[in-house]
Specification:
- The chain has 1225 residues and is mainly beta.
- 4% of the residues lie in helices and 36% in strands.
- It has six helices and 87 strands.
- The chain is elongated.
- The relative contact order is 0.05.
Length: 1225
């Protein structure tokens, strides 16, 4: 190795600033090609370790180097006089490297190849900046400027590209043919002969060569030689190796000679087949008598999972293309395959009609077409070819399309497939080994080399701007921290860090990456715009530790995101992995991942190297609103399109559920809530959920959802409501995808579907549009389409989260819902079913499913409620809609929610059951649930009792959800007879203990109560009765369970008594008179026809997602204040609130949010509350006072001072004195 530095003369030169903006035209640049530029007049040679200490112009391609280090005063500038390359282990930049500039785009070709095997050396700067190996690194003070051609990164189809079939140009395909089903057990070669004019198969057969069976091997060798020698002139011959074609006891010499005679006009040793080894993949295509068109491909067996070979031949005169492939699977031999395809050139060279002008895409450029089906693996590559007849929005490609790529907007759901550019004129790539080197340390997981190159930038960089670059085989799956593009603990890179032109990475492509595409780690203010990330291991666009802020991801696309091993969470890879809400995500596409498309998952505090740096305080991210989420797309993801749940744990895993509850002041636990707005999501063809989002006050606006087992579900992490507004949900669209073939191995039967289905492993999985879960959730202005059941699976627009074991809301509601189908005949507006069908459980909490129909737009009846069709829930006014399998009721329902304080070791509660007084034989059971919950009818016409299966718990709280003024509920609780109890409540009155409650003598007295501070204790039956009331009516805009007032509640503590005295049903209903007759319905409902209510969605939904209407920032402004809410209290200092929203206009494209208050409060009801007087305890009896003879009397007194009546409160009712007779002699 030779160490080369710039000559000492160059060190005396001073760089000057000139008007010319092209860096390679600046003066004082010494040419790399001139020996005089180098110390000792010796240019760097093979293996040189180069140090640059002044300004150098790279104007030639040097031999492979060891490395380049650019010192603080050094500069390396790429010349535009030619196409130059560098091959070396690393480039370390303390000074500056330029390939073009912002004002002088680099338009030649530049190629940097990073080489090396892991474990040879380590580069660490300043003792802390670990660049390690195979990198381009920017050290503190360094600058990297790469400004390549600014080509369009990606666009969308405006016309569907069909897969090639017999209907549009496929002439022959081996897969599925009679040949493929005959003798396919034979390892060896498969050989076809095709007619050169028509493309029709003249013959095809398997030949047994890859194993040894004396007679069969000899016979097939002879048969193959005879075939090859007897082929007529001009015929097309295709050969492919199947499984293996090499065995030491099988002599391939006659076959090799026959192939060379056929394909190379008897030129000996000309065929690559002579070099084939055991397990190699090999193909050949030729035309008899025309050796010039012979094409061979040999792919060596390595340590990878498999190897493939491919060859194609196009004949222009007959307009035919022939293609042959060989795939050898090294893990599972049965997955090895061959294929032979013949197609017309019109099918093989389709013209893509695209949304944007694509004149910057030129012949030879590589493209990738995203999957538009459930299977992310349906992404396909293509090569641009010359096209004289193409318009500026068209490009012709060579592409063997195995799948359809959809190109339409369906009812405001933009399902036009993306087409992305892979090729760039500046290429940075890692050179890979043929197999996995043992030094990688991960060969047991990856049977191929995953030690690619990487770009790394650290704290203190002067600047980094990269645009128009192609990064291939970058990233290192071998160790954490080495990614294709990596901003590593750079802190503030925007104006806060005094960067006037903040760093960016834009208009670039990262593909076939071994670890992510772009990583932002402990860095704030970076802009990532219009990039392509294709075929990456692990999270692709990766915000790492949870401290990253003010970064902008705009207009990027990611597709084919695969599972990785760097972090535990990489087993659930997301194309966008966002760990901090203070970032901007807009105009991006997640077009195919092995798990999630977009994953918002926050830690409690930043972890890893970001911990303790002050980026975020503990729990701050859990209470911070999203900075921006606008116009993002996710489709073709294996699990969910957008998933917002779980937490990042210090172990790097992500698990549990999110505690996300945004607040206006995130660090103030008493702060009012803040709204998070998910604007214009477009989510389709995600298998399990298009969207699953957990949090507090979240609003999804103008969303477009289609084609998923479950369109959308909200989960909550606090008591705030969630909203879906102005949106479109389609169950099954005209984008039918690749029809699913389901094979049932248990019954040896199959089902051929006419479209792709989301859960291909369980074809009976129902299709749902919106799933009610947790709550309160409110749907308004939503249009549904495409929810028709078939013989294989059910479908319904509105349903309930399956296997729901969470408590749910009684006040979730719908309003202004529209359907484009007639219920029953053309679809189902609502769908539930029995547990006998897949996906519909019979779990205790799931039985409490319900929602309210405010305006009748779903059920046909305004102010109705949908409940489970079970006797406990339904009333005489309800009717069961058979196709929905739920009941529609005129009643208002609430819920009794019971929370147990003394939890079981497994966090469960005791088994409690409820009885409706008019149906005492019907019991609704909650087995070991904590909380337990029962759906109840409100308004006083129905009442309930609660009992226990195992024991009476010592302490528990009962809350009445959905209670409002006039909608009250009376219920009793079974407790040990004659037990000593304590009671308390926080609403509707604050009652600290038993002394603050009023005991009444009958149920009639209790039901007359409108205050909520009374109870009736039947010690004989063991039933303690309460009446839950509210002082305020629920307003139209109320979104919490009980409006502005806290829900009524009572805490019961059993201080003494037999806790096995748990079931009071026989005493209540057999002996005593707690039975009641069901009231006559005031508004009985009946089945009615429900026709389509809107044939199109109108303005609902996201609509077209590209081109982006504008990227100019729009600053938000507040709209008008809303009305004041009801006072939270009727006296003694209540609070009223009013809100205004930052939506006139909305902040968009990075515009600032509104400044000022979004919530105002004011005091109300300041007068003292009236205090009714209460009797003290009676005094002791006086001594007996003699009246006559031995007769006398005693008396005792009490005072109206517990409390003393005040503020116009009532004086105590009753006598203040009691007298009884006594005897005294």
């Amino acid at each position: 190795m030779r160490v080369v530095v710039l000559s000492t003369i160059l060190l005396l030169l001073t760089l000057v600033t000139v008007d010319c903006q092209c860096p390679d035209r600046e003066p004082n640049l010494r040419r790399w090609s001139q020996a005089s530029s180098w110390n000792g007049n010796l240019k760097p040679g093979l293996g040189s370790k180069v140090t640059i200490s002044s300004a150098m112009l790279l104007d030639e391609t040097p031999p492979e180097l060891e490395s380049i280090t650019i010192e603080p005063n050094g500069r390396l500038v790429w010349s535009t006089d030619g196409d130059y390359s560098l091959t070396l282990k690393y480039i370390l930049i303390h000074g500056r490297m330029d390939i073009g500039s912002e004002d002088c785009v680099f338009n030649r070709k530049a190629h940097i190849t990073l080489v090396g095997i892991r474990g040879q050396y380590r580069v660490i700067v300043g003792g802390i900046h670990e660049f390690d190996e195979k990198f381009i690194g920017v050290a503190p003070g360094g600058t990297l400027e790469i400004h390549a051609e600014r080509k369009l990164s990606w666009t969308k189809l405006t016309k569907t590209v069909p897969k090639i079939t017999s209907a549009n140009g496929l002439i022959y395909q081996h897969k599925g043919s009679a040949v493929s089903m005959t003798n396919s057990w034979k390892p060896g070669m498969v050989v076809y002969v095709f007619d050169e004019k028509t493309g029709k198969s003249l013959s095809g057969d398997y030949f047994f060569l890859g194993n040894y069976e004396p007679s069969l091997s000899q016979i097939d060798t002879s048969r193959l030689v005879t075939l090859l020698k007897g082929i007529a002139d001009d015929r097309i011959v295709a050969v492919s190796v199947y499984k293996n074609t090499v065995h030491p006891q099988v002599d391939l010499t006659p076959i090799l000679e026959a192939i060379e005679e056929l394909a190379y006009d008897n030129e000996t040793n000309s065929s690559a087949l002579r070099n084939i080894a055991n397990g190699d993949a090999y193909v050949l295509l030729t035309q008899k008598g025309n050796p010039n068109v012979t094409i061979e491909d040999l792919s060596r067996k390595g340590d990878s999972d498999g190897q493939s070979a491919e060859a194609s031949l196009t004949l222009l005169a007959p307009k035919l293309k022939f293609k042959v492939t060989s795939y050898i699977d090294n893990v599972n031999d049965d997955r090895s395959a061959v294929d032979f395809r013949v197609m017309t050139t019109a099918a093989a060279f389709p013209i893509l009609t695209l949304l944007d002008e694509v004149t910057t895409w030129v012949p030879g450029d590589k493209l990738v077409l995203a999957s538009t089906d459930y299977d992310w693996r349906q992404a396909e590559e293509a090569t641009v070819v010359p096209c004289a007849k193409c318009t500026k929005n068209q490009v012709q490609v060579e592409m063997d399309s195995r799948y359809t790529h959809f190109g339409e907007i369906i009812s405001n759901v933009d399902q036009r497939g993306e087409v992305a550019l892979l090729t760039r004129n500046v290429l940075i790539e890692g050179r890979m080994e043929d197999s996995c080197p043992p030094s990688n340390g991960n060969c047991h997981d990856f049977h191929y080399d995953t030690f690619g190159g990487h770009l790394k930038f650290v704290q203190g960089i002067a600047n980094v701007h990269i645009e128009g670059v192609e990064l291939v085989h970058m990233g290192q799956q071998t160790v954490i921290g080495h990614y294709p593009v990596h901003y590593h603990i750079c802190h503030d890179l925007d104006g806060i860090g005094n960067y006037t032109n903040p760093p960016y990475f834009r208009y670039s492509t990262v593909h076939h990456s071994f670890s992510r595409c772009v990583t932002i780690h402990g860095t704030h203010g970076v802009t990532i715009v219009d990039n392509v990330c294709y075929d990456a291991l692990g999270h692709a666009y990766f915000l790492e530790d949870g401290g990253e802020k003010r970064n902008v991801l705009d207009g990027n696309i990611g597709l084919t995101t695969r599972k990785g091993k760097i972090l535990t969470s990489d087993s659930r890879p997301a194309t966008y992995f966002v760990t901090n809400p203070k970032n901007h995500l807009r105009n991006n596409v997640a077009a195919g991942s092995e798990y999630y498309g977009i994953w918002y998952v926050f830690p409690d505090e930043p972890y890893g190297p970001s911990q303790g740096l002050g980026f975020m305080q503990m729990y701050e991210s859990q209470h911070t609103p999203y900075a921006e989420w606008n116009n993002n797309v996710a489709h073709s993801n294996e699990v969910d399109g957008f998933f917002a749940d779980s937490k990042v744990l210090p172990t790097t895993a992500a698990g549990g559920t999110s505690d996300y509850s945004p607040k206006i002041r995130p660090l103030d636990r008493n702060s009012p809530p803040a709204q998070v707005r998910i604007i214009k999501p477009t989510l389709y063809k995600n298998r399990f959920h298009n969207m699953w989002i957990r949090g507090g006050w979240i609003t999804v606006e103008h969303g477009s959802f289609a084609d998923s087992a479950n369109g959308l579900a909200f989960a909550r992490s606090d008591d705030q409501a969630q909203f879906l507004q102005n949106s479109v949900i389609i169950g099954e669209s005209k984008n039918i995808g690749e029809p699913t073939l389901y094979l049932d191995t248990d019954t040896s039967t199959s089902i051929q579907f006419d479209r792709s289905i989301p859960v291909y492993t369980t074809p009976s999985t129902p299709i749902h549009g919106f799933l009610f879960h947790d709550g309160p959730v409110y749907l308004e202005n939503v249009w549904f389409s495409g929810f028709k059941s078939n013989s294989h699976y059910l479908a319904g627009a509105i349903g309930f989260e399956k296997y729901d074991q969470n408590i749910t809301s009684a006040v979730s509601s719908v309003k202004h819902i529209r359907f484009d189908f007639t219920d029953i005949t053309s679809g189902n507006r609502v769908l539930d079913s029995s547990s006998s069908l897949m996906g519909f459980p019979d779990d205790d909490r799931y039985n409490g499913i319900t929602f309210r129909d405010t305006d009748g737009s779903v059920t046909g009846y305004s102010n109705s409620q949908v409940v489970k069709a079970r006797p406990f829930y339904t009333t005489s006014g309800c009717y069961v809609r058979p196709n929905w399998q739920v009941a529609v009721c005129p009643d208002t329902f609430g819920k009794l929610t019971i929370t147990f304080e003394n939890k079981q070791p497994d966090d469960t509660g005791p088994t409690v059951f409820a009885v409706r007084d008019d149906k005492p034989a019907v019991q609704e059971i909650q087995t070991n649930q904590n909380p337990a919950q029962f759906t109840t009818v409100l308004g006083g016409g129905y009442s309930y009792t609660l009992h226990w299966k195992d024991y009476v718990p010592h302490s528990f709280t009962i809350r009445g959800d959905g209670i409002e003024k006039g909608k009250w509920l009376r219920f009793g609780v079974c407790l040990p007879r004659h037990a000593k109890l304590d009671l308390s409540s926080t609403s509707p009155k604050y009652l600290q203990n038993m002394n603050n409650w009023i005991s009444v003598a009958s149920l009639q007295e209790l039901e007359a109560d409108n205050i909520g501070d009374k109870y009736y204790w039947d010690t004989t039956a063991g039933l303690l009765f309460f009446k839950f009331v509210s002082f305020t009516a629920r307003e139209a805009n109320s979104t919490t369970e009980c409006g502005v007032q806290e829900c009524p509640n009572v805490r019961i503590e059993v201080l003494s008594g037999d806790i096995t005295d748990r079931d009071c049903t026989s005493r209540a209903y057999d002996t005593f008179t707690y039975n009641r007759t069901e009231p006559n319905p005031t508004r009985p409902l009946h089945s009615q026809s429900l026709s389509a209510s809107a044939s199109s969605p109108g303005t609902y939904g996201a609509g077209p997602t590209r081109p982006f209407t504008t990227r100019s920032r729009v600053n938000g402004q507040f709209g008008d204040w809303g009305p004041w809410s009801d006072c939270s209290k009727s006296c003694e200092g209540g609070i009223q609130t009013r809100r205004r929203y930052c939506d006139h206009p909305l902040p968009e494209k990075g515009g600032t949010s509104c400044t000022g208050k979004s919530v105002e409060t004011r005091a109300c009801a300041q007068q003292y509350c009236a205090v009714d007087g209460g009797w003290s305890a009676f005094s002791d009896w006086t001594a007996c006072v003699k009246v006559t003879g031995c007769n006398g009397y005693q008396k005792r007194t009490r005072q109206c001072n517990s409390p003393v009546p005040a503020h116009n409160g009532k004086y105590c009712e009753g006598q203040d004195e009691e007298v009884k007779s006594c005897t005294i002699c």
